[in-house]
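ENTRY TYPE: paired fold submission
RECORD: A
CONTENT: sequence, then C-alpha cells
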Amino acid sequence: MRGGAIRRPAVAGLFYSADADALRAEIGRCFTEAAARARRSSGVATETAGGATAPKAIVVPHAGYVYSGPVAASAYGRLAVGRAAIRRVLLLGPAHRVPVRGLALSGAEQWLTPLGPVPVDTGAVRALAELPGVMVDDWAHLQEHSLEVQVPFLQTVLGRFSLVPVAVGDASDRKVAAVIDTVWDDPATVVVVSTDLSHYMTYEQAAQVDARTAAAVVAGDPAAIGDYDACGCRPLRGLLEAVAHDPGRRPVELLDLRSSGDTTGDRDRVVGYGAFAVV
C-alpha cells in the first residue's frame, strides 16, 4: 500500500486525548510529574547538565499517557534544549499490528495529531528505501501506536521538525543500525526509539527483568537484551549497535525505570517502562 498525503491518528482518544487543549494539559501533567520525580530521586540521573546539548538519541515507552507518559517526559524534557537546532526526527518503534519483514517506512507526506500536522521527510524516506530490508508500507503504520504516541511529545518540545517514521518488524540489529547510521552524523537529526520493556509479569518479576535490561542498555550490550525483554527489542538493539559504531562511543544514561504497577498501583500483571538518553 502506498501512502496518501496524510497519516491520520489511530489512537487519539485511546492512548491520549483527542482534544488539542486537553492533550496539551495531559502532556503538561506528564512533564510536571517527571520533574517532581526528578526532585525526589537520588539514584537515577534526571537533570540536564548546564549548557549541555540535546541527546543524540532517546529511548521512550509507548503506552497510554496515563501509564507511561511521565516516564517518556523524563527523556523528552532533555530534548527541549535542542529546540532551535533539531530539525528532523528518525522515529523507530516495533510493528504491533501488521507482520513486517524488515523495516517499514511511511509513504505519507504528513502525520496528523490533534496538535496539527508534522511533515514527513520524503527525501529521507526515498533514500532509506534503497537500503536492504527497508520498504515503504503504510499498512504497517495505519493502526500502529508505538510511533504515533511519540509525535505529540515531539511537537511539544521541538516545535517545527520533519519526521522519518520507521516501523521495525523482523529485522536484524545490523539492518536497523544501518538505517540509524545514515543520520547519526547529522547534528540536526535526533533518533527516537519507542519501546516498552517486560510484559505481564508480577511487579517483583518485572522489576528484576527490567533492571537487567536497563543495565544492558546502559552498558551498550545489545546481545544481553532478549526478544521478550522489550517489545521494541529490535530497534533498541539496533540503536545500541549504532552507538557502538560511533568513534566517540557516547554514553547511554538511564533517566527513569518504572512499571505500570508504579503508575496505576495494580501490581498483578504489569508492563515495564524505561527512559534513556544517548548523551
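RECORD: B
CONTENT: sequence, then C-alpha cells
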Amino acid sequence: MGAICNGMAAHGGVIPYDATFLIFSDYMRPPIRLASLMDLHVVHVFTHDSIALGEDGPTHQPVEQLAGLRAVPGLTVIRPADANETAVAWRVALETERPVAMAFSRQKVPTLDRERYASAEGLRRGAYVLHDADGDPPELILIGSGAETGLVVDAAERLTGEGVGVRVVSMPSWDLFDAQPQSYRDEVLPPSARARLAVEAGSPQGWHRYVGDRGDVLGVDRFGASAPGGEMLEHYGFTVENVCERARALLRDKA
C-alpha cells in the first residue's frame, strides 16, 4: 500500500493517501522512510491510535508507534484533538510537499467549542494555547495531544475550580511546533512555567523535551490488554482524577 502511494507520488499529478490502523504502520516503515527520504507528497491516515482501541488487545494496540513515526526525518506527524483540528490538519497535509502521517482515535472525542477555546488554526504551528489561566506565567501547563486533549480540558476545569492557574496547550504536531521561531515556542511554553504535565496514550519517549526537568508525562510504557476502550483508559490512568493528582504533585514539588 505505501509503496504504491510512493510510486503515484513520484509520477505526479495526484496526492495519494492510504489508511489503516496505527499499529500496522510497523509494516509500512520502509515505504514511509523512503517517502521521507525522497520528499514524496504522500498522506498516511492512521486510525485506532491507542490502547483505547479496546478488545482487539495488545497485538493491535499501538504503544511505541507514534514515537517511532516522530523519529523519521522529514515526516510530519499530526494527531488532531477534535473535528476542528482534523479539518485544519487535512489542509496542512494537502498544502505541504512532504509526507504526512495523521493519527486518529477509534473512540469518540468531544468537539471543542471554539467560541470558548482558541481557533483550531493554531494546529498549523504545531502547538498553541487552547485555553489560558489568569496570570502570567501560569502556575501549571497541561499539554494534550489527540484524543487526550479533551481529558486535559476537563482536568483543567477541575483544577481551575480549585484555584490553580492552568494553561491548556494542544500539541498535535511536534514537527510543526519545532519549526516555529523560539520566541513563539517560549510564548506557548514559557521557560519560567516549569510545572508541566503532558498527557498522551502512547510511549512517553520524547515528551520530556517539552515538559522539562520539572515536568511529568502521563503516557503508556507497557503493552495493553484486552478490555473495552473505556476500561483500558481508566486502568492506565487516563482519568480526570489521575491527571489532577499528577498535576497537584507537580505543584507540591514546585512549592
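NOTES ON RECORD B: The beta strands are 17-21, 43-47, 76-78, 100-103, 128-131, 140-144, 166-170, 196-199, 216-218. DSSP finds ten helices and nine strands in the chain.
STATUS: closed
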